[in-house]
Amino acid sequence: MAWPVGSDPPRPRGRWRDEAVEAALGHLLQGGVVLAAVLVALGGLRYLLEHGSAVPPGRLFSGEPANLRQIGGILEGAAACRGRPLIMAGLLVLIATPVARVGASLVAFLQQRDRTYTLLTAFVLLVLAAGLMGWGL
Amino acid sequence: MTTTGFTLLVALGSVLAGLLGALTGLGGGVVIVPMLTLLFGVDFRYAVGASLVSVIATSSGAAAAYVREGYTNIRVGMFLEVATVLGAVLGASLAGIVSTAALAVILGLVLLYSAFLSSRPRAEHVVATPDPLAARLRLDGAYPTPEGEREYHVQHVRLGFGLMLGAGALSGLLGIGSGAVKVLAMDQAMCLPFKVSTTTSNFMIGVTAAASAGIYLARGYIDPGIAMPVMLGVLAGSTVGARLLSRTAPAPLRALFAVVIAALALQMIAHGLAGRL
Predict the structure, then answer these.
(1) Mean per-residue pLDDT pooled into runs of 10, chain B (277 residues)
(2) At what angle do helices B194-218 and B74-95 cross, to 10 degrees?
(3) How far apart are CA B13 and CA B205, in angstroms?
């Protein structure tokens, strides 16, 4: 929907005002970060108990094993309470948090019947989903 | 050194990085990659993966506080995110192809620019004349000031969009929030008041980093043993930093951080040129 130049577009009121949506989303993001931090900290403790006296990671690049590169493998390991997958599960929650925010913005723009921004937001969400699937260029 | 010792030292360094990042407004992400590669000898790709994760954590963690201030322009954010996420996917894809030596030099140059920018006062150019494209995209807004609501009109939409494409690519390539390039795009090109551009840029940083973090994760560039102390440390440091000072840091502290960043930048460039990364 294109607004004629210089005209004043209607501003949504009530629950779906930009400001109200923003405030709710801010709390959603903070909640996601807290959950992610708890998972990462728990996984970190397990990890140090399992590997604490080993040689530190990351000197040489070898790439992570397949089970730490896929959502299924991470969740399986996290369910078994193993340290490294548990940390990765926390990081997945962290990565998903801004994605959820974009998803919520999509709903808000749909409610506002703002076609331009619904399309723009859907496009951003699509690119994010492709990134999470690991589809680079 | 054992893994426990490494974890504790990296966590400590990350707390400091997060603290300084919050106090100067540059974000903790800018010094994580130099710290991990230069000080701890971590591979560049793992360092970028860990840094991206910390960038998402700081951005999302600060969102609620920023929202309370009521300056975020969600339309500007969403419109520019189209550019930053495309750039991020491009950058993350290139990260597997470009040599780490070249990446180190690029990161050094971006850090030098950030240091330069943080040492100068930010100039505000709020324009009162509407831009047709910005009006059509409904980008214009108003923000609260002590004298009441003040309107602003977004300028140079295409230039801003192009710069954000670059900011996204740098973010995906180097694991940083690209705050410096975003300031250039939003303050200088698009003429947003900087309270609006700071909060809106924070809104975008997490989404941009999430776009490339997925690719890093799927390619095995995110090591839990490195990302764990970095994420927790930066999050703790930036949270404390934000509590300590609700406004920008005093000039001496900003100058100190600018010097630290410039020194790290020169060292990154030297290591990159010598092929020692």
Answers:
(1) 94 92 76 93 93 91 71 89 95 91 94 83 75 90 81 92 95 87 85 85 89 90 96 92 68 80 93 85
(2) 30
(3) 22
| Residue numbers of B between 215 and 274 with CB closer than 8 Å to A | 215, 217-229, 231-232, 235
> Quick check: A119 pLDDT over 60?
yes
Query: Residue B151: beta bridge partners?
Result: B142
Q: Rounded to whole angstroms, how far apart are CA atoms A32 and A18? A: 21
B41: left (phi over 0), alpha (psi -120 to 50) or beta: left
pLDDT of residue A10: 52
| Residues of chain B positioned with their CB less than 8 A from the CB of A5 | 132, 135-136
Distance of alpha carbon B195 from alpha carbon B66, whole angstroms: 10
Q: What is the pTM of this model?
A: 0.88
Q: Note whether B79 contacts A: Cβ–Cβ < 8 A.
A: yes
Nearest CA in chain A to B68: A23
Count A/B contacts: CB-CB distance under 8 Å: 234
- Banded model confidence at residue A62, pLDDT cuts 50, 70, 90: confident
Asked whether the beta carbons of B215 and A136 are under 8 A apart, the reply is yes
Nearest CB to A123; choose among B7, B82, B136: B82
